[in-house]
Amino acid sequence: MSDTLLTASGLTKRFGGLAAVNNVSLELWRNRIHAVIGPNGAGKSTLANLLSGDLPPTSGEVRLGGVDITGWTPERISRQGLGRSYQKTNIFQPFTVWDNVRLAAQSRQAQQPWNPLSWWHSATKSIATNDRATRAIELSGLKDRRGAMADAISHGEQRQLEIAMTLATAPQVLLLDEPLAGMGVAEAQRMVELLLKLKKDHAILLVEHDMDAVFALADHLTVMVNGQAIASGTPAAIRSNAEVQAAYLGEEHA
Ligand code: ADP
Ligand code: MG
């Protein structure tokens, strides 16, 4: 059995005359972190949007577990096993940590047509949903904060909550858009450890600007500039790539 969970082929997204993503291909493997790096405006978030179904591609194809998911809605793609966290937070501030994760876990359920056993289905589903939410909270290190209001926890904990909400949908593939953004050193270190833990069960696409974290975590990197993947390879190969040095790493990772 192949461990390739997601394959994107020739993905392009045009906004009018701008090719925000231009003929990008990549694979995500279970137990591996694939980092996508590049300057602001390179097309990293747009690429994530094409994989998650938040945007339909202009052309190209996305396959998840061998199934062609191109053009599917984000909800359907989520139920197929792809979880996405966003660069901008998705948290409902007036609710507790637990409520946020529970709601995310619930979104995993497909709407059932009316059926006479629906009371039974909803009871068993509710247990499964609670279990998923509990596991997601424990895994993301928020067990002690489950009763806290989402706006009362620290910035780092809010990013952990984002991850917990993503995990609550029971994904096999995780797309994480700048999970370390705005974090202090200790928070960033905690997030790096969490991502290493998540790698054991998931295929991960990591969009991130923190180059220390990227090089500590990534098994494979793709470098995007102006919508194009200008290089793809191991961390060692990317570090020593002259074009990448000139286009991106030189300034940001001196
Ligand atoms: P990154 O995440 O690498 O910083 P983005 O994917 O957010 O880059 O943006 C890539 C380019 O596409 C930018 O020039 C941005 O302005 C443009 N862009 C992103 N989303 C849209 C949109 N919905 N409509 C028009 N242009 C967009
Ligand atoms: Mg972005």
Tell me what you see in this structure:
This protein has 254 residues and is of the alpha/beta class. The chain folds into two domains: 1-81 and 172-254, 3-Layer(aba) Sandwich (Rossmann fold); 91-170, no CATH class. Helix content is 39%, strand content 25%. It contains nine helices and ten strands. It has helices spanning 44-52, 74-79, 97-106, 118-139, 155-167, 185-199, 211-217, 235-239, 242-252; strands spanning 4-15, 18-29, 33-37, 59-64, 67-68, 82-85, 173-177, 203-207, 220-225, 228-233. The strands form two sheets. Strands 6-7-8-3-9-10 form a six-stranded mixed sheet, sandwiched between helices. A hairpin with a 2-residue loop joins strand 4 and strand 5. Helix 3 (97-106) packs across helix 4, helix 3 (97-106) runs parallel beside helix 5 and helix 4 (118-139) crosses helix 5. It starts with a strand and ends with a helix. 39% of the residues are buried. Bound molecules: adenosine-5'-diphosphate and magnesium ion. Adenosine-5'-diphosphate (ADP) binds at residues 15, 18, 20, 38, 40-46.
SSE map:
Layout: E1 4-15, E2 18-29, E3 33-37, H1 44-52, E4 59-64, E5 67-68, H2 74-79, E6 82-85, H3 97-106, H4 118-139, H5 155-167, E7 173-177, H6 185-199, E8 203-207, H7 211-217, E9 220-225, E10 228-233, H8 235-239, H9 242-252
Parallel strand pairs: 3-8, 3-9, 6-7, 7-8
Antiparallel strand pairs: 1-2, 1-4, 4-5, 9-10
Helix pairs in contact: 3-4, 3-5, 4-5
The structure holds adenosine-5'-diphosphate (ADP) and magnesium ion.
